[in-house]
Amino acid sequence: MKSISLLNISFSYLGGDDLFTDLSYSFSADKKVAIIGDNGVGKTTLLKIICGDILPDSGRVIRNATCELLNQINTDSTRSGGQSQQQALGRAFDSDADILLLDEPTNNLDATARQDFFKKLFSYHGGAVIVSHDRELLNQMDMLLELHNGKLFVFGGNYDFYVDQKRQMQDSIKSKYTDAQKEISRLNATITNAQNTRQHHEAKQQKDKNNKSAGSKIAVNALKGKSQETEAKRRKLIQTKLNRQLERSVELSAQLRNDTIKIPLSNIKVYDKEIIRLENVCFSYGKRSVLSDFSFTMRTGERVRIIGNNGAGKTTLLKLISGVLQPTEGNLKTSGKIAYLNQDLSLLNPDKSVVANISDYAGILLHEAHIIAANFGFRGSASGKKVSDLSGGELLKATLAAVIGSKYKPDLLILDEPTNNLDIKSTLILEDALNQYRGAILIVSHDEAFINNLNIDSVISL
User: Fold this and answer.
1) Does this chain's domain 3-157 share its CATH topology with 274-461?
2) For the chain, which has fewer Cβ within 10 Å, the N-terminal or C-terminal residue?
3) How many CB atoms lie within 10 A of CB 459?
């Protein structure tokens, strides 16, 4: 069987921590497998090592198969992201390689293009190694590999199987953590009881010593010495057990995933009103017409999805409503506060702290911003972390905290492909946040699993 094998490879970027340490796995030409993991763990780097674009620091890569790498696509001004992605995918399938290496292949693809991609992928004669957060795609894989702490963990099934296995693993860790906490409490109680008993015995021995003759006092001292020696050994043994349980508790706690966020419900009354009205709106880029006589209304609290083929004008419509663009013809009216969550999450000031950004954006005092930061997982010193130093998932949570964390929430939240650059964990955090948010949502997204969890009220087709 044709394959590409990684044998004990290690890799780190100059001056950085190791991405991989002694990683081994064999990718065969008869399997469609996906690599998942948090942003920054090295998934894209691993694909480049597999294809030979990057050499490992140590270990070997044995290639008994041809491969073709599809990198993440950077869009240009002449084509939409979906159009660029389709062209790149076409070149990959035409390569006739034994193993395709695809990095986020469904990003920006519309519904028609997605189905065309699925059809081509699963009829392709060779294997595929896919880095993706697309749960619809992941559910059609032969196998999932999770990249975590420089190692590949194998889950022999699709995404639903993976979720079930991870849930069982988390339940087991929770149970072990609870047992460790109980044992810590028991050992601490044992130490306290032993200290109280020792103090009582020492007081009694001192009293007996004062009431005895000199010879008896020598015997009492000898007995006391032996008792203290035995007690010291017992205390040391208990303390060793306690230290072991404390270390175990810390390790288990680090394995527990707690990414929940809390958005307090606002007590500000929300009135049912029209927040968007477009009447016969037209827009053109030069001579190219994108929207023609388009009319649309939206009310408080509604959740509306915009769909359409690549290049149909979805992003243009969002820019018109948010005020970035102005209509060529027609009338456009908006009411209330509008927030736009763009794909690169560039809303916050990178040179300021998380809590300062929340304070600035929401127009609230710092002590109120600290409460909001804590609700989104930024507790203690973490709230003072500079935005430029945040990971992708942290940046998402900080942005959500600023936009919808305070009582002054926007009336309308506009999102354009919000999950494109998010790992699965961050996507789930976003889902949770949006389902706690009670304002109106206008969204463009090709992520069907994500959309299905948002309780969309209506769909506008362009």
Assistant:
1) yes
2) N
3) 10
